[in-house]
Fold:
Amino acid sequence: PAKTVLQIAECSERVFEKIAKIVKPRLPMMFSEPFRTISFLLIVINGVLMALPLSVPMSNSLPAWMIMINVLANLEEDGALVIVSYVQSAVSFAFFIALYFGAETGLEFL
Structure:
């Protein structure tokens, strides 16, 4: 077990070193008040989408990626990453909208 923990720690260290090269403090305006509220609301909405009892592939991972990216952006104060999380949220919303209309069309077909 100790060897396994050491391997996990070494692998994690390599991953975090790669992340540290990408993530850095920039675009401080993304942490002013209107954007903080938008980020909070998007995290809540994506959390609600994750809580939906759907057995559809990607229905939890898309909102989870948005939340993870946004949290990382807030930890490192990276405004560019906040923008990436907003884009990921749009992708997540588009997925759920397509899922809704696809289910509606499927039910009409029956």
The CA atoms of residues 25 and 78 lie 5 Å apart. The longest helix spans residues 79-109.
